[in-house]
Design goal:
By secondary structure, the chain is of the alpha+beta class. The chain has four helices and six strands. It is about 25% helix and about 50% strand. It has a six-stranded mixed β-sheet. A hairpin with a 5-residue loop joins strand 1 and strand 2. This is DUF4440 domain-containing protein.
Amino acid sequence: MDIKETIFELENKLQQPDVRKSVEQLNDLISDDLIEFGSSGLVYTKQDVLGNLPASSEIKFVMTDFKINILSADIVQSTFKTEKTDIETGKISRSLRSSLWRNANGKWRMIFHQGTPFGVKSNL
């Protein structure tokens, strides 16, 4: 598996409901020094993610335009778009997303993530 496939698989895992509900799986995928600038405008640490995400409502994600930028032998940036649907409310939101992944001792973990909301332009 090449690096793009590896990082895509990791990003995709973080969007799966069973992973988002599992403190153990989240703990394995994100670094202890994670910083996230959420699409909500709030800043999160790993402790925030582990404390809040498993209790949050179920979200269905669609990821598009996935790309990576290899910054060094052990740091990779991913960029992509998401459309997420809250299963309970049906609310749909779209975000531009970027993550930094660090490989330490053969294990990739997310060290940074940012989600920036974007809207659909209209020709009206």
